[in-house]
Amino acid sequence: MLSDLLPPALVALLLDSILQTATMVGVAALLSTLIGLPLGVLLVVTGTGQFLERPALNRVIGTVVNLIRSTPFIILMVAIIPLTRLLAGTTVGTAAAIVPLTIAITPLYARLAEAAMREVDQSLIEAAQAMGATPLQIIWKVLLPEALPGILAGQTVTLVSLVGYSAMAGTVGGGGLGDLGIRFGYQRFMPEVMVAVVIVLVIIVQSIQVAGDWAARTVNHRVARSRLVARSHDQT
Question: What is the set of domains in the chain, with CATH numbers?
Answer without folding.
Answer: 2-235 (1.10.3720.10)
